Prior knowledge:
Strand content of chain B: 5-15%
Radius of gyration of chain B: 22 Å
Oligomer: heterodimer
Radius of gyration of chain A: 14 Å
CATH class of chain B: Alpha Beta
Number of domains of chain A: 1
Order of helices and strands of chain A: EHEHEHEHEH
Largest sheet of chain B: 7 strands, parallel
Mean pLDDT of chain A: 92
Amino acid sequence: MSEKKIRVLVAKPGLDGHDRGAKVVARALRDAGMEVIYTGLHQTPEQVAEAALQEDVDVVGLSILSGAHLTLVPRVRELLQERGMGEVLLLAGGIIPEEDGAVLKEKGAADAIFTPGASLEGIVHYIREKIAVS
Amino acid sequence: MDPVKELLQGNRRALARLISLVENNDPLKEEIMQRLFPHTGKAYLVGVTGAPGAGKSSLVDRLLGEARRSGFTVGVIAVDPTSPFTGGAILGDRIRMQEHALDRGIFIRSMGTRGSLGGLSRAAREAVQVMDAFGKDLIIIETVGVGQSEIDIVKTADSTVVVLTPAGGDSVQTIKAGIMEIGDIFVINKSDLPGSERTVAEVNLALDLKEEPGWRPPVLPVMALRGEGIAELWQKLLEHRRHLEQSGFLESRRRERAESELGELVEFLVKSRVWQNIKTQISLEKLIEAIALRRRDPYGAARELLRQINFPL
Lengths: 134, 313
């Protein structure tokens, strides 16, 4: 009689102050029945990983518009692994050039990249498919 | 490895996972809670409640600083509402608790109200017990002060802080809602706003109308964002705890809590098991149809179902 829900951490690591995209995605995930933990702007990778641990999330979504994705995403992945959370689905969104996205996926840093124009339904669908809730 | 053992050794990942198990009402939950129980009962439980936007999260954030300076390790359970339509939630209390994000002595967990079987009060209370077993000295439960289940959570605390603001009419509204009865300490937050002194006076007046032996709840003006009044609040909390211990109220509160907990657990078991039994043994369709068409009354039907599974009435 388990009542599990998909828990998602939506975080904005780094220095850019634009959180509209992150908020829109957070709302879409909420409307899809998920529990979204939103932590606000200017997070360090350590803060993101720590919050992910304490909140025991299934998914971490990083919104990055600063161009620092090649540093931030692998760092968050590394810190999650250090905390025994290697299995967490790590998604990155924002202004991420295609070739950088390919690098991040190849390195195993990000599981998926959602750039401007990605549909909200697509993101919801992707998460639901990857996280099977009993 | 066994998550209960890991938790007792101080593993934070195990703490996080066990809270999830409890929150999800996992089949393993009962056994886990039974094993954790001998390690609980040491933490000081503080409830923080108040209207949306009153500044509860900012207040808790500041309180964390004070508690840490006094050498307490702290667990926080921050509750936000779940949408009754989609079942989803945005849990945003951490935004205001960033200062302590990397302090290993603090563990913050966000919970949605969910509104499942047995309700939030059960899930939150069990999460408190998991943090207690982990060894947190102080556990703060923060919740929006609307609705019965939230009041129930707060009632599981040793000390309750009610957060109000000077904004027009607010204090009168709160008195109406019956929240005056649950506060051990009242905070008038955003005390730089106009009307603050009047609100303090109004709350004081309302408190003077009720008589309680031994402890008169103090009314403290606070500015959580600037940290003003926080040290006083922390001192009052410690004072209230001493009062509870010395007056014997702590024991009687914990006894009341044990009673309601036991009652809730029995109710939960009966409700879930009996209904499950009925649903697996008896086809209900025709009966439901008959009641919907008003050919049968639901009162007699309910009793008949229980008789059919030999449930003693």
